[in-house]
Amino acid sequence: MKWRTYALYFLILVYVSGSIGFAYNPSFFLPFTPFTLLFTCFVFLCYQPLKKKTFILAFAGIALIGFISEVIGVKTGLVFGNYYYGNTLGIKLLGVPLTISINWALLATASILVSTYVFKNKWMIAASSSFIATSIDFLIEQLAPRLDFWYFSGGMAGMHNYIGWFLVSFVAALLFQSYLKGGDKKISLIILGLQLLFFGVIYFINFKI
Questions:
Q1: What is the CA radius of gyration of the chain?
Q2: What are the tens digits of pLDDT across the range 70-99?
Q3: CA 125 – CA 113 distance, rounded (Å)
């Protein structure tokens, strides 16, 4: 379907132009963040086998696990450390932006599918996908306060956060990877690449120039 290709090209354009725009004029681009996440999710799902109910349920399950872990994290500090969310990511429920569940589902699902390029063993897939998702979170964490995403009480996220990210991602991968079979690996790689490009460019411009 050509419209899917056009949507993907437009998404790439949004990420490339947005990364530069965010770096130099974040106040203008920040309000578009929730819509960018929603559009990213839309394009990603357009390439997936949505006729398989198991895939949809697995994607939704990962989103739910991510959201619940964030609520527990914000309210107690047990999962990721002590932190709270800013306003950039949109409407909140129980102190957590609803778009965060989408981000969890996107990152975890894409990481799982990309990991199946290399591994077949479910434990290795879970470990690999968790490492990928946590690595991307590590990059985002360097910019989160500046972009009004979230704020940690100590200023920056500590090891507690990354251990929490790895464990939540690992559990999600173990529970749902078998239901994600048949998912599009190429679009998953593209989505992860766009995330790395986006936050990598912002980081480079903000901290290296």
A1: 16
A2: 999 999 989 998 999 999 999 999 999 999
A3: 9
C-alpha to C-alpha distance for 145 and 23, rounded to whole angstroms = 14
CA dist., res. 151 & res. 61, Å (int): 26
Task: Give me the amino acid identity at 59.
Answer: F
Per the CB < 8 A criterion, the answer to whether 140 and 199 are in contact is: yes
Task: Give me the sign of the Cα torsion angle 139, 27, 20, 97.
Answer: positive
pLDDT digits (tens, 9 = 90+) for 115-158: 998 899 999 999 999 999 999 999 999 888 888 899 998 888 88
CA 149 – CA 118 distance, rounded (Å): 33
The DSSP code for 29 is H
Distance CA(94)–CA(70), nearest Å, equals 10
Domain boundaries, the chain: 2-208
Contact call for residues 42 and 6 (beta carbons, < 8 A): no
- For 117, phi and psi rounded to 5 degrees? -60, -35
Structure tokens at 194: 């766009």
Q: What's the token pair of residue 138?
A: 């590590």
Looking at the DSSP bridge assignments, the partners of residue 85 are 150
CA distance 107 to 136: 8
